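Retro notes - structure team

What went well: the batch runner handled both jobs without manual restarts.
What didn't: labels got mixed up in the shared folder, which is why I'm recording both outputs here explicitly, each with its sequence directly above its tokens.

Job 1
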Amino acid sequence: MALHAPRLRRIRDVVLAGGVGAYPTEGVWGLGCDPLNAQALARLIRLKGRGSEKGLIVIAAGLDQLEGLVQWPRREAVVESMLTSWPGPVTWVMTAAPGLPALLTGGRSTIAVRVTAHRPVIELCRATGMALVSTSANRSGHPACRRGWRVRRVFANQLDWFLPGPLGGQRGPSEIREADTGRILRAAAGQPGK
């Protein structure tokens, strides 16, 4: 909590109380909350105007924060590919741990997770002591916000917390890959799908 310790402590308290807020990620602004708090998840989904069947991405400061959220693939080559891409802007769809909220997984047996290298997100996750939901800060069907002032304009006073800071070096949302196959489900901005 070196850069914004008092602010991060306040945000931690609000997140633990079920608050929803915004923060800068690798390529776009994200909306976040406690991934295990069903009420916070429902509120975040309503804010975006997004279908609950889509599921949400979870972002972590380290592998330790994925404990209780994922089941690791058995194939060593798959795990090696994942670990090679982390920390970094690659999201992997893995088998979900049992008992996760359906709003988080979209009712599926999988969950999308990422271990970030982006300093503001690392500090945020470490301050809260958990991985956080990371979905693009936008209304469903509209472009993801790349400026903090746009987030504030779109969501006005509907957010409980806001962590200012720079975006990372990506030009848009993270690449998403399927852990079992390595197949690209969403290419990173500016990259064609494979």
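Job 2
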Amino acid sequence: MSWILLAIAGLLEVGWAVGLKYTEGFTRPLPSILTVISMLASIALLGLALRHLPLGTAYAIWTGIGTIGTVIFGILVLKEPAEPLRLLCIALIVFGIAGLKLTTKA
């Protein structure tokens, strides 16, 4: 269950990272409210996952999911560059997350 909570927390991190783009410096009320809710929910779920997962592993996976999801959103929606070196770097993060998951006994 902790891994599921951590995955959801990571997806919510994508939500708030993307949301920051649309708040326009927290001047737009609806995107700002949704972004703050996503932030709070993400951190709360991370906290719950930390009951049973090692801090370093959980935090690295949480930020990794957020990083990967945000970059994919940027490429697909915001038309950011999808250069081979950039994609390789994202792949390295994916492999790092998988490695942490596979080597954690929780």
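One thing worth noting from job 2: The mean pLDDT is 95.
We'll revisit the folder naming next retro.
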